[in-house]
Design goal:
Oligomer: single chain
Strand content: 15-25%
Largest sheet: 9 strands, mixed
Helix content: 25-40%
Order of helices and strands: HEEEEEHHEHEEEHEHEHHHHE
Strand order of the largest sheet: 4-5-8-7-6-9-10-12-11
CATH superfamily of the largest domain: Vaccinia Virus protein VP39
Number of domains: 2
Low-confidence stretches: 77-82
Shape: globular
CATH architecture of the largest domain: 3-Layer(aba) Sandwich
Structural class: alpha/beta
Mean pLDDT: 92
Distance between the termini: 43 Å
Length: 320
């Protein structure tokens, strides 16, 4: 269940100073104005777009203020892509089932031993992620979703490098297919650690063997072990691959045909037979899948401990 903004305003904070609250002016259920404390300690209004406050420190963010100076239908960099074909491919080639299973486990982890509603922060969730239905359909799970653009699935607009949420305010965080699109993944993970309550759970999915997508807003890839190191301040609940070498070959062929034909649509059609290679991932040993993973995932718990550098090699799950 997606939280109304009014119900979670008490945990929101200035993106400049997380100890300072956000000011809201309501007229009934309509947000009329929102203000944050700036670097000089002044209370300044923030843009409102589609009824959502834009809680971004523009002096420190790559997101330009100009995006919000005129009303547009969407600020998504992938708004033109149709979700149905992508969903069909995800189901056919196996990534949907892995994500769905992981989110079911994630949901169990955040509900075990804890009665009552849970607050789950959805980072970069302008679109519903694959397999997240279990979270959206659970009446005891309250979702607080944001992205760098407003959508029907977001509550506010923000930059994950400076999450406008108070310290230790949420029970869990989901960040699916986002860390490749941020300038400083380590900073984003440190923010996730900050906003999570002790014992809180994080779930992340991030690409490894994938080509550039979202153009200029695509920066980083992680091996499975590199992904584990990124989340070194969390104890592992489960980690692994989302798709293996077969799916990675499909991605490569899709971009090969895109370069050859200069057409995304034609490349998508020509690469379909290579998608069948993803089915062969099911018969590969897990170590081989890890080394050629199309994407990786990490589920962990905030415990106050940290993985030491001397321990990182022991965390390797591959076949080499």
């Amino acid at each position: 269940m997606l939280a109304p903004l009014k119900s979670i305003e008490h945990i929101l904070a200035s993106p400049i100073d997380p100890s300072a609250e956000v000011e809201f002016l309501w007229r009934g259920d309509a947000l009329m104005e929102s203000k944050v404390v700036d670097g000089a300690g002044r209370s300044v209004p923030v843009p409102l777009i589609s009824g959502q406050p834009v809680l971004i420190d523009f002096d420190e963010s790559a997101v330009p203020r100009q995006w919000f100076e005129e009303r547009r239908e969407s600020y998504s960099l992938v708004a033109e892509r149709r979700s149905l074909p992508r969903a069909i491919k995800a189901r056919l080639f196996g990534t949907y089932e892995v994500s769905r299973r992981n989110f079911e486990k994630f949901s169990r982890e955040i509900t075990s031993g804890q009665p009552g509603p849970r607050l789950v922060l959805m980072v970069g969730a302008g679109q519903k992620g694959m397999g997240t239905e279990v979270l959206y359909d659970d009446p005891d799970t309250t979702l607080i979703a944001f992205d760098i653009y407003p959508s029907p699935f977001t509550v506010f607009v923000a930059d994950a490098h400076r999450i406008p949420v108070k310290n230790e305010s949420v029970d869990a965080v989901c960040i699916q297919a986002v860390l490749e699109h941020v300038l400083d993944p380590a900073r984003v993970v440190s923010e996730i650690l900050r906003v999570l309550k002790p014992g809180g759970v994080v779930y992340a999915e991030t690409p490894f063997m994938q080509q550039v997508h979202e153009g200029a807003a695509d920066f980083t890839r992680f091996t499975e072990l590199g992904h584990r190191w990124l989340f070194r301040d969390f104890d592992t609940i489960e980690r692994g691959a989302i798709g293996g070498p077969g799916l990675s070959v499909y991605w490569s062929m899709k971009y090969f045909f895109r370069g050859l034909t200069r057409s995304r649509k034609l490349a998508n059609i020509l690469s379909i037979p290579f998608g069948l290679l993803a089915l062969l991932d099911a018969v590969m040993p897990s170590g081989q899948i890890i080394d050629g993973a199309n994407g990786v995932y990490f589920m962990g718990r905030k415990s106050g401990g940290r993985l030491a550098p001397r321990e990182v090699f022991e965390q390797y799950l591959g076949a080499q």
